[in-house]
Amino acid sequence: MSEMATTRRSRITPEREAELYAAVLDLLREVGYDALTMDAVAARTRSSKATLYRQWGGKAELVVKAVRHNKPGKTDGTDTGSLRGDLHSLVAGEDDCTMEQNSALMRGLAMAVHNNPDLRQAFREQLIEPETAAFHRMLRRAVERGEVRADCPALDFVVHMMAGGFVVRTLMEDQPPTQEFLRSYIDAVVLPALGVPTC
Q1: What is the pTM of this model?
Q2: Residue 24: alpha-carbon gap to chain centroid
Q3: Biggest alpha carbon–alpha carbon distance for the chain
Q4: How far apart are the first and last CA of the chain?
Q5: Is 52 exposed, middle or buried (0-12, 13-18, 19+ CB in 10 A)?
Q6: Backbone angles phi, psi at 94, to 5 degrees
């Protein structure tokens, strides 16, 4: 990044950035990704459209940064000393009400990701790839501690299992994911698949 770009980016305070991200998420919940415009974000946040484009480049990057900022559980910062503790700690990062709101938001964005290559690329680069890499580091620690065999075939599917538990409950049971459901799912499905005791 050039010195000029760094200077430009540093003008927005963390508090103002958080306020902008919250407004973007509110707009997403109200109108969805396709109907969200930079004009609407500028009006809602009392910003200039030029500032938004200078800071984030476009709608896709702004939306993904807002979603990423809103994520409570940081996979990389979680190390409780056990894989079960790490996974349960991630679940505990969001209360049930927030989880339900974010689940609805992500369902809406999932459709937009399929139809917008720029959004899909931003999601992969800024959310999916970093989260997957952090999960793999968490699993590597579990292998190094001797909790999981290095040749366990389920290691390659933990991210898929976790995402599935979060998404599928709404589709199959018309119920939002909850902390209780996800903790039970981790203990009944994810950890047994890895050969990790749950008690």
Answers
A1: 0.77
A2: 15
A3: 55
A4: 49
A5: buried
A6: -135, 130
What is the 3-state secondary structure of 50-113? HHHHHHHCCHHHHHHHHHHHHCCCCHHHCCCCCHHHHHHHHHCCCCHHHHHHHHHHHHHHHHHH
Q: Is the pLDDT of residue 18 over 60?
A: yes
Q: What is the pLDDT of residues 30-77, one digit of tens each?
A: 888 999 999 999 999 999 999 899 999 999 999 999 988 877 555 666
Residue owning tokens 């305070």: 13
**Lowest-pLDDT range of 51-60, 102-111, 135-144, 186-195:** 102-111
**Tokens 């484009």 belong to residue:** 53
Q: Which residue has the tokens 């200039």?
A: 48
pLDDT of residue 72: 58
Backbone angles phi, psi at 31, to 5 degrees: -120, -10
Q: What pLDDT does residue 136 have?
A: 92
CA distance 70 to 122: 16
Task: Give dist(CA 70, CA 141) in Å, integer.
Answer: 26
Backbone angles phi, psi at 64, to 5 degrees: -65, -40
